[in-house]
User: What shape does this take?
Amino acid sequence: MVNEMINGTFRQTNLPNESEEYLNKREELRLAELELMRRREQVAELRRQLPQGATIQDYVFDEGPAKLDAGDKPIQTVRLSELFTAPDRSLVV
Assistant: This one.
């Protein structure tokens, strides 16, 4: 990696004989990437500051028989909240 001053601006470059146009566009890209990173952090902070949202309804599923070749009966209903009640069954969203 070569470190040099070009037109009064410190440039970090890997390629010899880079044109001034290329260096200017590369610097423009670097600044745009920095601005994007800052903006992404601002959006993440706004997301963290959101108040708690609405409570999600407890979905109900129809559960068929354990054996797939047993037909479509019996059917029982199972709530989403019931699926993750055991200590080893946590739900991560």
